[in-house]
Design goal:
Largest sheet: 5 strands, parallel
Strand order of the largest sheet: 2-1-3-4-5
CATH superfamily: Flavodoxin domain
Distance between the termini: 12 Å
CATH topology: Rossmann fold
Number of helices: 5
Bound molecules: flavin mononucleotide
Number of domains: 1
Strand content: 15-25%
Length: about 160
């Protein structure tokens, strides 16, 4: 199986998640290519699964990621599976503050990409992967790369079942 992991990253955190996803897929014996979203989409004919990830910034998702979803649709990538991931945070420790600020974190880049992918009728995996950072520019919180590896296993298992 061959997967394509598209990402946009300003400070390296989302790229680290993309590489953890690719690393786990390679460990499972599959081919996985990570690719910066600033580059054009490659030929998708021999691709069995696509993942697309971006950081949450000002509660939103970069237009490059939205454009890539539209391009996937235009290129006819509508039956094969797609999964969405993002990075976000850090979350306020105080629950009252989190409640007050929640619009900055939820639905985040992942939720916004998921909504657009559904609107475009792409075959999007129901679950998204969201990885937390410790500070506004990272690094990722402990355990988040393992969460990414687990997500990679679930996505691969879902593709293999079909
Ligand atoms: C300018 C800026 C704005 C950000 N805005 C948000 C935000 O609104 N919500 C959020 O959850 N995280 C926000 N973050 C945190 C980023 O989502 C987090 O650091 C992310 O992992 C960065 O990914 P990258 O290293 O791949 O660029 C922001 C970070 C920066 C630098």
């Amino acid at each position: 199986m061959k997967t394509l992991i598209l990402y946009r990253s300003y400070h390296g955190n989302t790229r680290d998640v993309a590489e953890a996803l690719a690393g786990e897929m390679t460990k499972l014996g599959h081919q996985a290519e990570t690719r910066d979203l600033r580059r054009p989409l490659p030929d998708l004919r021999d691709i069995d699964g696509v993942l697309i990830g971006a950081p949450t910034r000002m509660a939103r998702v970069t237009w490059k990621a939205r454009l890539a979803l539209r391009r996937l649709r235009r290129k006819g990538y509508t039956d094969k599976p797609l999964a969405i991931f993002d990075t976000y945070g850090p979350l306020p420790a105080d629950p009252a503050k989190l409640e007050e600020d929640k619009k900055w974190f939820y639905p985040g880049a992942a939720g916004r990409m998921q909504e657009l992918a559904q609107k475009l009728k792409l075959n999007v995996f129901p679950k998204t992967l969201r990885c937390l950072v410790q500070g506004a520019k990272g690094p990722l919180q402990q355990g988040e790369l393992e969460k990414a590896a687990q997500f990679a296993r679930e996505f691969v298992a879902a593709i293999e079942k079909k």
